[in-house]
Structures are given as C-alpha cells and as structure tokens.
Design goal:
The chain is globular, with a radius of gyration of 16 Å. The protein is about 30% helix and about 20% strand. The strands form two sheets. The protein has a six-stranded mixed sheet. A two-stranded antiparallel sheet has the order 1-2. It has one domain: Phosphoglycerate mutase-like (Rossmann fold, 3-Layer(aba) Sandwich), CATH 3.40.50. It contains seven helices and eight strands, in the order βββααβαβαααβαββ. The two termini are about 25 Å apart. The chain is an alpha/beta fold.
C-alpha cells in the first residue's frame, strides 16, 4: 500500500521511479522500518559499481539533511560498507553494523561503469543484469533482516544500498524477483515500511528530503 502522493512521480523507460517532493515526513505512530540508501560517492556520480569508498562532499551534505527527516529513532543499523557507515554518522545515527545489510554488487567491477564492464566481459554483465541475485543470497539476507526487525518496537532505521532496498520492496509487495530493476532508489533516499501482524506494508518509496 503506497502513501498518498504529496509530491510527484516520474517514469523512465524500463524503470519505475517514484519520487516524493514534500518538505517533511508526516507524523507516524506505527512501528516502522526506514530504509536509507547510502548517500553519494564519486562512483555514484559516475554511475559506476561501488568500491568501499567514502562519501563525497555532496553526499555528506545529503546525509546530514536526513537527520531532521528521520526524527526519533529507537534502533539503528548500518551496512558494513564505508559509505553506509558515513551516511549513518552524518545523519546523527548511532548505528550498529549488521552484515545482513551489505550490498551485493560484483566486486570485480568495482569502480567501473556499465559501459566499462560491458567492454571487459559483456556476457557476464548481461547475465548479472538479467539476474542480479542468481544464488538468492541477497534475497535471503533481506528476508532474515526483515524478519528480525519485525520484532523491534518503534522506529528502526537501516542504512543500506540500492539493491538491498529494491529487494525489500519486492518482498513487502510479494513481487517477483524479475521486478528488481523496476524500482528506483536514489542516493540518500528513504523507503518506509510499516509493521503489520503478518509482515510489512510499503508506505513510502524513494523519498529524498529537500
């Protein structure tokens, strides 16, 4: 179930992009899980596969803007990646590192753009684009974390990565893994899930504080 549209949305060919252009998060009393995609790095700006790099100056500023939007936080977790931990710190979170929140990008392409990856091994890249989680490892980690977080009261914030957030959205919607690339997740964006007895309800997707 999506929240009412207080902003706008855009759709790019082959992708579903849902963006919100409001200036504050409305008050919410439900137990909820806020998924934060880590803020931008130099690799993000190039649309390159990440390495364990730091946020750039713009990424730090974007992460700092998250603090007010997040409000009171009862539990905070972070991916082990440097960019995620830096995002958490800049957002004012005392986050515990959780390995289940790690990304799943192919490390052999760290620092390469899609075009550079295609030049190196086009068949391998195409297989990854067709199925970015062939062994189900990311799906399993997302499922495990969502199951654990379901028992945590109040507001939980998890700082993680774009692919992780996409997979969580698919699980909340009971959507097929083939829909992975049809969810857009911007750097330093918030995706909100509300807890229900039998799982999670999708309340907000890809919202970026102004």
């Amino acid at each position: 179930m999506l929240a009412s549209r207080a902003g706008g949305s855009t759709t790019a060919p082959g992708d579903l992009t849902v963006s919100w252009s409001v200036h504050s998060v409305p008050p919410m009393t439900a137990d909820r899980l806020i998924l934060v995609r880590s803020a931008a790095t130099a690799a993000t700006r190039r649309a390159a596969f990440p390495s364990d790099e730091a946020l750039d100056a713009g990424g730090v500023r974007a992460a700092e803007r998250l603090a007010e939007a997040l409000g009171r936080v009862d539990t905070a977790r972070s991916s082990p990646a440097r960019r995620a931990r830096m995002t958490a710190v800049a957002a004012g979170l005392a986050a515990t590192v959780d390995a289940d929140l790690a990304g799943a990008d192919p490390q052999e392409w760290a620092g390469l753009t899609l075009e550079e990856g295609a030049a190196r091994d086009p068949d391998r890249l195409q297989r990854w684009l067709d199925d970015p989680d062939p062994d189900g490892e990311l799906w399993a980690r997302v499922s495990r974390f969502l199951g654990q977080a379901h028992g945590w009261p109040g507001t939980t914030v998890a700082v993680t990565h774009g692919g992780w957030v996409r997979m969580a959205v698919l699980q909340a919607l009971d959507a097929p893994p083939a829909s992975f690339w049809r969810v857009d997740v911007a750097p330093a964006s918030l995706t909100v899930l509300h807890r229900r007895d039998r799982g999670w309800v999708l309340a907000r997707v890809n919202w970026t504080p102004a």
